[in-house]
Write a structure and sequence with these properties.
about 55% helix, binds adenosine monophosphate, binds tryptophan
């Protein structure tokens, strides 16, 4: 049987290589399999958990759609829509927030990281964000959720919420318990400036990430400046595990070329980093530049992008409003 795929990406700008290798590349493969039903959501309600400039947000919503399509997602074979337009998401999030427990949310490490030292100043939305994510997934009876490694804990919470709802209201199997699809390798791409830190949209240094809209010179320059260590390229996985920056760069190379880590190591072991970096830049340019050019082209066709969202929203709303009706019945509304 085919899978019901659901995933979301926040329209917060600067979509980068981590988003691509950790998530979007996987979306494309799943979407290419005609047995699967795929829904890709631009999660604009999640984006406002931190302050957003409304004008920039509108552009970023379009840019996220453009990135999906430029990366190879076929809008004819999937539903692409933005979350805020389908009101069932907000509604289900409220209902599920009465099912989820404070203790469960208190364990979420992403909130702790994002809220930083002054938790009192974080929005309530930032805290309850994983409940909205659960609503997204559960409204569509999703069976599989492709995400990067950082979303693993949120998916476990989603499964707990679904289970608890089914138990509390004695509606076994009402919410499907979704499976995470997290790649075994390369599911966490690190910053080019610090091998201990995740590559992130919000890093102040643009040199820390390869943006999917970067041009050739930017890519080459960022790889040239990427942090390494003074030793030659490692020969074994054990050695690699002790060298965070080398591991990240070789991981990126392997993921882009579909080689195993072992094969990539064999190719470069003992050589110096500059030779490896030239090769890495080349594969990055070959992969990213066509995507970057296509994003820029699509952004000049905003009517086309808006039309895709409008059609996607109609289809998503059709599915989600049926589910929310059933939820109302179960709740006694
Ligand atoms: P976000 O931009 O936070 O909405 O993330 C969109 C998708 O990209 C999610 O599935 C994340 O898990 C994934 N992602 C974000 N950053 C990285 C990273 N550095 N490495 C791997 N996957 C990532
Ligand atoms: N929280 C996810 C992130 O920041 C985005 C997201 C929202 C999501 N809703 C989702 C991912 C549903 C998968 C399924 O990356």
């Amino acid at each position: 049987m085919g899978k019901k795929i659901f995933s979301g990406v926040q329209p917060t700008g600067n979509l980068h290589l981590g988003n691509y290798l950790g998530a979007i590349k996987n979306f494309v493969e799943l979407n290419n399999d005609d047995n699967n039903d795929c829904i890709f959501c631009v999660v604009d309600l999640h984006a406002i958990t931190i302050n957003q400039d409304p004008k920039k947000l509108r552009n970023n919503i379009r840019e996220t759609v453009a990135t999906f399509i430029a990366s190879g997602i076929d809008p004819k074979k999937s539903i692409i829509f933005n979350q805020s337009r389908v009101s069932a998401h907000s509604e289900a999030a409220w209902i599920l927030s009465c099912v989820a427990r404070m203790g469960w949310l208190n364990r979420m490490t992403q909130f702790k990281e994002k809220a930083g030292k002054d938790k009192e100043k974080a929005s309530i939305g930032l805290y309850s964000y994983p409940v909205l994510m659960a609503a997204d997934i559960l409204l569509y009876d999703s069976t599989h959720v492709p995400v990067g490694d950082d979303q693993k804990q949120h998916l476990e919470l989603c499964r707990d919420i679904a289970q608890r709802f089914n138990n509390d209201f004695k509606v076994e199997d009402f919410f499907n318990i979704p499976e995470p699809l997290i790649q075994k390798q390369f599911s966490r791409i690190m910053s080019l400036k610090d091998g201990q830190k995740k590559m992130s949209k919000s890093d102040l240094s643009d040199l820390s990430r390869i943006n999917l809209t970067d041009d050739k010179d930017q890519i080459i320059n960022k790889i040239k400046k990427a942090k390494t260590d003074p030793m030659p390229m490692p020969a074994t996985i054990d050695e690699l595990d002790k060298r965070a920056e080398a591991k990240n760069l070789i991981g990126i190379y392997s993921s882009l070329t579909n080689l195993t880590l072992e094969k990539s190591l064999k190719k470069f072991s003992g050589k110096n980093f500059s030779e490896f970096k030239e090769n890495l830049s080349q594969v990055l340019v070959d992969k990213i530049i066509p995507i970057s050019l296509e994003i820029k082209k699509l952004l000049s066709e905003s009517n086309y992008l808006d039309q895709i969202l409008l059609e996607g929203c109609k289809k998503a709303d059709h599915i989600a409003s049926k589910k929310i009706k059933k939820i109302h019945e179960i709740m006694g509304f």
